[in-house]
Write a structure and sequence with these properties.
By secondary structure, the chain is an alpha+beta fold. Helices cover about 15% and strands about 15% of the residues. It has two helices and four strands, in the order βαββαβ. It has a two-stranded antiparallel ribbon. It has a two-stranded antiparallel ribbon with strand order 2-3. The model has no long low-confidence stretch (mean pLDDT about 90).
């Protein structure tokens, strides 16, 4: 089970151009019904390549900020 945030794809914005699927270095993305989706979330390395290449900004990678107690002192 994936506990980190995962890329999200806005299916209303996705044009099905396939750029993200072609760019993903670990083949975590695929397409169905003309829209991209995260087919293999466990493969995702959070490299941001898909977000960077999307021409319509349909992909967002939320970031998780973790503070360690030693960083607060």
């Amino acid at each position: 089970m994936h506990t980190e945030p995962l890329p999200t794809i806005d299916y209303h914005l996705c044009t099905g151009c396939h750029a993200c699927v072609d760019t993903c270095p670990v083949q975590a993305l695929d397409q169905a019904g003309g829209k991209a989706f995260l087919a293999y979330p466990d493969l995702c390395t959070y490299c941001t390549a898909c977000e960077d290449v999307c021409p319509v900004g349909a992909i967002a990678l939320p970031f998780l900020i973790v503070l360690r107690s030693s960083a607060l002192h």
